[in-house]
Amino acid sequence: MTPRSKALIFWAAGVLAYVIAVFHRQSLGVASIEAAARLGVGAAGLSLLAMIQLLFYAGMQVPVGVLVDRLGSKRMLLIGATVMSAGELVFAFSSGLLPGVAGRALIGCGDAMTFISVIRLVNLHFPARINPLLVQLTGLIGQLGALASAVPLIHSLRAYGWTPTFLGAAALGAVAVLLLLTFLRDSRPELAGDEPPGLKAAWAEPGTRLGMWTHAATQCSAAAFLLLWGYPFLVQGQGLDPSTAGVLLSTLTLCGMACGPLLGYLAGRFPFHRSRMVLIVIGTTAGAWTAVLAWPGRAPLWLLVLLVVVLAANGPGSMIGFDYARTFNPATRIGAATGIVNDGGFVASMSVIALIGIALDLHGGSGPDAYRWAFAVQYPFWLLGAVQVLRYRTITRRLLLAAQNS
């Protein structure tokens, strides 16, 4: 078997594990209304569930980045799949807020170990010129997990109920472990000395922070929509049938899968214009939300379709942040740099999710007006992200120019 064939097999095994991780990550989104009834919580309680999941995900990013540089991708992927499966088991039998929080915390921890590990496989086994495209394809294929967590999960909850549905989700973790043990071979990397592999150096690199702010500004809106608030917004705030809402969530995912390879190709073909792509994603997202939130009463279906199509570019746009991490950091600290970049996006997403829940409770909990005020909390995140992208773009370009002239 050729090295390229082995690399493709390793990548495929990692991507399939990532598909299952995305399913776990987003399984709360379409179960949010059922979760509120089963666990006896309101909007703030639902926000707490999603926020805890993201808090553990975000908090684990940098430690996991360091560990994947030390232990390798296979070990981290196996641990992550096992921990997520345990989280779904806990969630399946939860009947109160505290067990529910524990289950989502475990899912956040395991999820944190997955994407970084797959990105490391791409960075180490494939040439730089196709890296952006493969990163986008990783994200694209991973969205199959989001599709499985939309309409099929809604159907399962209706047909079989809470516990059987989440027991089935836990069984997927065993499938991931089996796939990784069978197909992935990844030796432990050789590191010199006892110091962590480049964490301080990765943070000191302006290109890493450019990637972090890219990820934060582009991911937070779609993540909040898919992970928790999109389904209630469409059903309670816009009066859509649950099946229609599920189709819109699936449309968002499918459009994102179509957009990813295009952005990956453009990022690889025109690396100097990556920040321009990021700013376009931020601007169009803010514009689409403005149109929906400013519409008197409930927005028409065509405008909601336009919103989800625009939001579909958020995920692929956030992947450009990982390309910055690869561009400005050597392979020995790519895990740490990727963790920093990923952390930025999920801290922003966690903050948006929490603030939307608080705003909903302050403005009545449901209805167009309550959701209008709640989703307005996104504007400061877009503004700050765009300013920071422009700032670090200027710094990195100045440093690159100085290096070329030296």
From TrEMBL:
Record keywords: Oxidoreductase included? Answer: no
List, for all copies, the residue spans of the domain called Major facilitator superfamily (MFS) profile: 10-397
Family annotation (Pfam families): MFS_1
Q: How does it sit in the membrane?
A: Multi-pass membrane protein
The terms describing its cellular component in GO are:
plasma membrane
Q: Where is it chiefly localized?
A: membrane
Q: Where in the cell is it found?
A: Cell membrane
Transmembrane stretches, by residue range?
7-24, 36-56, 76-95, 101-122, 134-154, 166-184, 210-231, 243-265, 277-295, 301-322, 334-358, 370-390
One Gene Ontology MF term: transmembrane transporter activity
Keywords of the record: Cell membrane, Membrane, Transmembrane, Transmembrane helix, Transport
Respond yes or no to whether keyword Cell membrane is given for this record: yes
User: Matching PANTHER family, A to Z?
Assistant: INTEGRAL MEMBRANE TRANSPORT PROTEIN, RESISTANCE PROTEIN MDTM, PUTATIVE-RELATED-RELATED
The protein's name in its UniProt record: MFS transporter
Which organism is this entry from?
Answer: Planobispora siamensis
The taxonomic lineage of its organism, from the top, reads: Bacteria, Bacillati, Actinomycetota, Actinomycetes, Streptosporangiales
